[in-house]
Amino acid sequence: MNIARSIIVSLVLASLSACEQDPTGWYGVIERDRHTLSAPVGELISDIHVREGDQVTAGQLILQLDNSTVNARISQREAELDELRALREELINGPRSEAIARAQSAQQGALADALDAEQRLQRADQLLRSGAGTQSDLDQRLAARDQALSRSEQARQQLAELIRGTRPEQLNQVDARISAAEARVLQEKEALKDLSLVSAYDAVVDSLPWRVGDRVAQGAALASLLINEHAFIRVYVPADAYDQVAVGRQLLVQADADMPAFLATIRHVRPQPAFTPFYALNERDRARLMYLTEVSLPDSHADLPTGMTVEVMLP
């Protein structure tokens, strides 16, 4: 009986030893890089052009935010720009002949008023000298004459300004205002483009958490896409094999029992360890650390579905 028990124990130990010498694989999951479309502003969703699971191409419209507010701002900015351009044309063309004629008439009227005020002042001075007038009357006539002369000088300067035409400094100021207005129009048009969310890659629509009519906050994730060409395997490598994995090294991947294994290239190994993931916990591995590793799929197997579990082994 003791001999038989010894034989059984020896066989079990030999079997365990053989198992430990066999190459051990690690189970990972096929994933894809995500492309997230976020709301540029807080606005209503006016239309959604795709559904979850749809294949989309780069540049395809995914979701449309309401653009009525931005269109109104564009109209306002364009009207301001048109006004400034019209002002510039007016300055270049100079004053109309009618405006010059009005200024000449105003100057002549101001000269006549100044002459009349001067004559009234002289009469008030004569009356004061003869004793028939008062100093108060003379002071009033003097003030009226000075005001009339001031109005006459102002009219003369306005006429001279119209005749000389627009100064270069005035055109430069208007040109600067036009440039600023054009920049505001361009800014609003870019804001209008941002309200049409398009895919930057060929991808699969993974998640659309919002519906038409929802008002979203700025920065909210509106759509999550899985990029087709960036398929990779996310696998946790145990600490005792960490020195055998490095960026650029190839690993053997077994996707399905009916499919032949293929080689895939490590694209990233996270240097910080993590505790053993929940699906790998057992009595032996519970205390061991794992290193998150990403393995790029070759083009021949890039169509493997996201979420598929595969086994990764050292070749």
Description:
By secondary structure, this protein is of the alpha+beta class. It has two domains: 23-66 and 204-313, Beta Barrel (Elongation Factor Tu (Ef-tu), domain 3), CATH 2.40.30.170; 71-190. It has five helices and 13 strands. It has helices at residues 2-21, 68-93, 97-130, 135-164, 168-194, and strands at residues 26-38, 43-48, 55-56, 61-65, 196-198, 203-207, 215-216, 221-238, 250-254, 262-269, 274-275, 289-296, 309-313. The protein has a six-stranded antiparallel β-barrel. It has a four-stranded antiparallel β-sheet with strand order 5-4-2-7. Strand 9 (250-254) and strand 10 form a beta hairpin. The two termini are 44 Å apart. Mean pLDDT is 83; it is low at 1-23.
SSE topology:
Blueprint: H1 2-21, E1 26-38, E2 43-48, E3 55-56, E4 61-65, H2 68-93, H3 97-130, H4 135-164, H5 168-194, E5 196-198, E6 203-207, E7 215-216, E8 221-238, E9 250-254, E10 262-269, E11 274-275, E12 289-296, E13 309-313
Antiparallel strand pairs: 1-8, 1-13, 2-4, 2-7, 3-6, 4-5, 6-8, 8-12, 9-10, 9-13, 10-12, 11-12
